[in-house]
Design goal:
The complex is a heterodimer of chains A (115) and B (113). Chain A is an all-beta fold. Chain A has no helices and eleven strands. In chain B, strands 2, 5, 6, 10, 11 and 12 form a six-stranded mixed beta sheet that branches. Classes of the chains: A mainly beta (115), B mainly beta (113).
Chain lengths: 115, 113
Amino acid sequence: GAVVSQHPSRVICKSGTSVKIECRSLDFQATTMFWYRQFPKKSLMLMATSNEGSKATYEQGVEKDKFLINHASLTLSTLTVTSAHPEDSSFYICSVTDSRNEKLFFGSGTQLSVL
Amino acid sequence: AQSVTQLGSHVSVSEGALVLLRCNYSSSVPPYLFWYVQYPNQGLQLLLKYTTGATLVKGINGFEAEFKKSETSFHLTKPSAHMSDAAEYFCAVSPPGTYKYIFGTGTRLKVLA
């Protein structure tokens, strides 16, 4: 069964609105979760590392005020795309690593379309 | 810094033919190595991984990969392609002790009837 649950799977929103994406670890407590962004026909780009109980660590070039990450519990991390614009349209995927960092489990992804 | 190179963004094979997807990496220390498969509009599913031990690793759906340190390669193979293997395949590396994964740009596998 699924190890990581990600919702919603698809969202369409108007420019200027904010969108929240949830990522839940179902099988184990995850102190660390990851958020990736995938452009069409491109690889996955790590956006940020979500740390339970502390601030997220953002990769270079990722706007932390645009992409708000909250990891309030050991099983839930949320990514909020604030004031979304068409260029934010993309496929966003969360992931969780097992305790030994030997496996990365992915959510099913969220296709965000900003009109 | 680590990096991953996947040669060939598109690979086409006939059903029943050998599948070979290439992956080379660059890393200052022997990394953990992974192959993931992605079907349209879905997340990624782990096919196989190498951490330590035997360099030939077997994964799901009949896939296997061999870690060759001297060639810094981790090519993915399957003896006989099936139509259901058509998907996007990603090679990834992760330095041991870190949580960071670096992905290649992916190879789209097409299986011809």
